[in-house]
Design goal:
The complex is a heterotrimer of chains A (112), B (228) and C (378).
Chain A: H1 5-47, H2 60-63
Chain B: E1 2-11, E2 19-29, E3 34-38, H1 45-52, E4 60-65, E5 68-69, H2 75-85, E6 86-89, H3 101-106, H4 116-129, H5 145-157, E7 163-167, H6 175-190, E8 194-198, H7 202-205, E9 212-217, E10 220-223
Parallel strand pairs in B: 3-8, 3-9, 6-7, 7-8
Antiparallel strand pairs in B: 1-2, 1-4, 4-5, 9-10
Chain C: H1 2-21, H2 23-57, E1 64-70, E2 73-75, H3 81-85, E3 91-97, E4 99-104, E5 109-115, E6 125-128, H4 130-136, E7 143-147, E8 153-161, H5 167-170, E9 173-176, H6 178-185, E10 194-199, H7 205-215, E11 219-223, H8 224-262, H9 266-277, H10 282-314, H11 321-325, H12 342-368, H13 374-377
Helix pairs in contact in C: 1-10, 2-8, 2-10, 2-12, 8-12, 10-12
The chains are: A mainly alpha (112), B alpha/beta (228), C alpha+beta (378).
């Protein structure tokens, strides 16, 4: 007798539900494994007086969102996304040439 | 067994295309007999069959099934009556495509929630009884016309109904298969079932298996046949 | 109860057999549905883990950071400010911070230069973050040269690379001594970038901030609470961008699902007629369809969520990275510690499973209440 379709489905759903529960177990396992590193990270952050995570290094207000003033457009990178939707509508000015090699903050349009 | 009193049935009532399919049917059908409804197309025989089988309710009139008035029952109860008392064999067989013969046979019993092994055994017995045991896993659209009809008959019998209703059962069959069907019909009566069918096939209405032929025309009975 | 279960199982049997008939179409729908859940769940898991990480790491950040504003923009803290703050009651420790940005034209990346208050590196040497070290290919003992904004070339010896596990807080850092910092940026003596304060009693933080504003009207105090709040909202915003991009896909799926679920083909209509004629109640037909909707949506939800979990926590959210990296050249490498927001998952569940189940039901209701004798008349 072939196995009943509903049995097959319920078994499959049972496995998926078990896997769903397993993600919580796995999350706890990973959290326990990462705990020493997380503690070290927090200690380092305290030692460095860190106020922000290093997530997006392209602009001041993305590198230090809590410290930057959020109201000036194109602060560091001509193509960086804005906190205001209108920022994505304005194209950056054409790149000046030749580009100075002094290492100053890039003029607008240093990257395509 | 079934008693009809002054049955009227209208379609599209109150609208411009209002049409009275039945106008004043009085009929009493006995149990354990084969009754055939005969008449030209549009005579109302299929409509009468739907009313006899509790598939539809009459616009006017009373139906008594086994001494019980069913004409006023709400749809929910009517479904229960239909499921336990009637088995249907439709003209186009109306099997559910994509499902196997076995699954089709079991369908009417699904809402009953019987234990699976019990239902399987019953369905397999029905199919085997109609020489279809070897085709049980085949999808119904792969079956021949005769096989399809036998699957439809097996399905009609799965809930062990007292009354079997068949609409033009031989319309899609050749002579040999029609004769085979009449044989099955005889077996059903021998099992103690009542059969009501519509047909204008002489092979059916003139057969000795048929106990009574009711002739309809324009929504009325013109010949009630040899009512006992 | 067993009777009820037996009935539902028969209904599930039927609905599965019915779904199996249009295998390609239904599997395709399930895949698209799963993919959508996968995308949304990935963003949710990623951002909730990041939020949790931010809360954990920044819990020990300075209670108050004091910036000075000139014409609405940051400016340096001039000499004398620290001494004046010293008189504010409740302030436990005052520390002038020195930090700034440096654009490295060689690799087109931005770094953060910072002076370490306790135990700073000796002049001429630096400590760098793991991301920077990886990016520039340096190890302890190597020399790293930067051309200052004034045009002079400075060479530093890398004495230490911060641990890779701390990249999330230190990836782009260059830690150096105060003397080197001031020389490199031509930073005026006695000036600071901002001031970090610690407050003895956390309940007094706000009072201290108010006092500071009165004492130094041109300053802007940033409280730790605000920092944490900013992190909660900044991810909402990033999340918002991704979800906006997704909303087009969401809409397309909505149309597809509505079309699939709500449009009843003539054949389905006929089938419902057959089922009713052979003794199924209207309720049975509706329950059967409800199972269809629930099972499809539940399968898609579970598949999508599980794939998202693996994606974010075991495959480093590889598909999200391009969006989240933005224009950053130097992007930290980090594996997130899972923090599953149960409420968020429950919300996702509700918003995926229920609309679909309802979309399936609407047309069925209409079809299921038609008369069963329709099959005989057709």
């Amino acid at each position: 007798m072939p196995r009943r379709p509903s049995s097959r489905l319920l078994i499959a759903l049972g496995i998926l539900l078990a896997a769903l529960a397993a993600t919580f177990v796995d999350a706890a396992r990973l959290a326990a494994r990462d705990a020493p590193a997380a503690r070290a990270r927090a200690e380092l952050a305290a030692r460095l007086r860190v106020t922000d995570l290093v997530l997006f290094t392209e602009a001041r207000y993305t590198r230090h969102p809590t410290q930057a003033d959020l109201h000036s457009a194109f602060q560091d990178h001509p193509m960086s996304f804005e906190h205001f939707p209108s920022g994505s509508l304005l194209m950056p000015p054409a790149p000046p040439s030749p580009r100075p090699e002094t290492g100053a903050l890039p003029a607008a349009g240093s990257q395509p | 067994m079934i008693e009809l009193k002054d049955i009227h049935k209208a379609f599209n009532q109150g609208r411009e295309n209002e049409y009275w399919a039945l106008s004043g049917i009085d009929l009493t059908l006995e149990g354990r007999k084969v009754t055939a409804l005969r008449g030209p197309s549009g005579s109302g025989k299929t409509t009468l069959l739907t009313i006899l089988g509790c598939l539809a309710r009459p616009t006017r009139g009373r139906i008594r099934l086994k001494e019980e008035d069913v004409s006023g029952l709400p749809e929910r109860f009517l479904t229960g009556v239909r499921r336990s008392t009637f088995g249907f064999v439709f003209q186009q067989f109306n099997l559910v495509r994509g499902l196997s013969a076995l699954e089709n046979v079991m369908l009417p019993a699904y809402p009953l929630g019987l234990p699976r092994h019990e239902l399987l055994a019953r369905a397999e017995a029905r199919l085997a009884g109609l020489q279809l045991g070897h085709r049980r896993e085949a999808r119904v659209e792969w079956l021949s016309g005769g096989e399809q009809q036998r699957v439809a008959i097996a399905r009609a019998l799965i809930n062990d109904p007292e009354i079997v209703i068949a609409d033009e059962p031989t319309a899609n069959l050749d002579t040999a298969l029609s004769r085979q069907f009449m044989g099955i019909l005889e077996a059903l009566v021998d099992e103690g079932r009542t059969v009501i069918l519509t047909s204008h096939d002489p092979l059916v209405v003139e057969s000795t298996v048929v106990d009574r032929v009711v002739t309809l025309r324009d929504g009325r009975i013109v010949d009630p046949g040899n009512a006992a | 109860m067993t009777h009820w279960i037996a009935r539902q199982r028969y209904l599930i049997d039927f609905t599965l057999a019915a779904l199996a008939r249009r295998k390609v179409r239904n599997i395709g729908l399930l895949l698209v549905f799963s993919l959508l859940v996968f995308a949304i769940a990935s963003v949710m898991l990623f951002t909730s883990a990041l939020r949790a990480e931010a809360a954990r790491v920044l819990a020990a950040s300075p209670e108050v950071i004091l910036q000075r504003l000139v014409a609405g923009r940051h400016d340096l803290i001039p000499p004398g400010y620290i001494e004046r703050i010293g008189r504010v009651r409740g302030v436990q420790r005052i520390e002038g911070r020195l930090w700034g940005y440096y654009y490295d034209p060689v690799v087109k990346a931005n770094y953060t230069f910072q002076v370490l208050a306790d135990n700073p590196p000796a002049p001429g040497s630096i400590v760098v973050g793991a991301g920077l070290a990886r990016f520039r290919g340096v190890r302890p003992g190597n020399t790293l040269s930067f051309r200052s904004y004034a045009g002079r070339l400075f060479s530093f010896t890398v004495t230490e690379v911060l641990p890779a596990s701390a990249e999330l807080v230190s990836s782009d850092l260059v830690l150096l001594s105060e003397a080197d910092f001031r020389a490199f940026f031509d930073y005026p003596a006695g000036h600071y970038t901002d001031i970090a304060l610690s407050v003895a009693n956390p309940l007094e933080t706000r009072t201290v901030a108010t006092k500071l504003s009165t004492l130094l009207p041109d300053s802007r105090p940033i409280l730790r609470d605000e920092v944490l709040r900013t992190y909660a909202s900044i991810f909402d915003w990033r999340e918002g961008i991704v979800l906006t991009l997704l909303s087009a896909a969401l809409l397309a799926f909505g149309i597809l699902a509505w079309d699939k679920a709500s449009g009843l083909s003539a054949e389905e209509r006929r089938e419902i007629g057959i089922l009713k004629a052979i003794g199924w109640e209207t309720g049975d037909v509706i329950r059967m369809k409800l199972w269809e909707g629930l099972l499809v949506a539940l399968s898609a939800f579970l598949t999508g969520y599980l794939a998202a979990y693996l994606h974010v926590f075991h495959f480093s959210a590889a598909f999200l990275a391009p969006v989240l990296k933005g224009w950053a050249v130097l992007y930290p490498r980090y594996t997130l510690t899972p923090a599953i927001d149960g409420l968020q998952i429950a919300t996702l569940f509700l918003f995926t499973v229920f609309p679909y189940a309802v979309a399936v039901l609407v047309p069925i209701w209409r079809a299921a209440i038609t008369d069963p004798d329709a099959v005989m008349r057709a």
